[in-house]
Amino acid sequence: MYGFVSDEEENIRNSAMMVEKVLINNYCLTHTDLLLGPLCDGVFENNWKKRNAAIILIGELLNIIKSHMYNTRTTDKAYAYYRGLMAVYIIKDDELEMTRHTANQVWNAYIENTPKTIKLGLYELVRMWTRFTHRANGVVFTNIIAFSSKYG
User: What is the extent of the structural domain holding 95?
Assistant: First the structure.
């Protein structure tokens, strides 16, 4: 289903996004890894429409996970929360303005203290850097350079 978010027809793209949102709303807490994995992979796609859709859908998923963690006072989904956040953090350095803007909106909706969040999600961030270095069109390298210059 995720492949259709970059279709040439706007109706197909919109329908695919709606279906993805329904899947996230209904199955986010029970099938988190199945939903989050392809979205994190989508952040590193060559097609900007797929990258942008992945960020939007990760934002939807983060909203549900954050609400769940707040309401239940548990941290059982914290790994998924930080994995999604680190995907958003990486794409904040994308070469395309629209994708950067979407990533910044999602980031700012959930994060008040970037250094603290990066510290808590550093394991996932480094994992993503190493996993996607070969596919990421330089965005990973740009992100590593930006991270290093900000945080030493």
Answer: 2-151
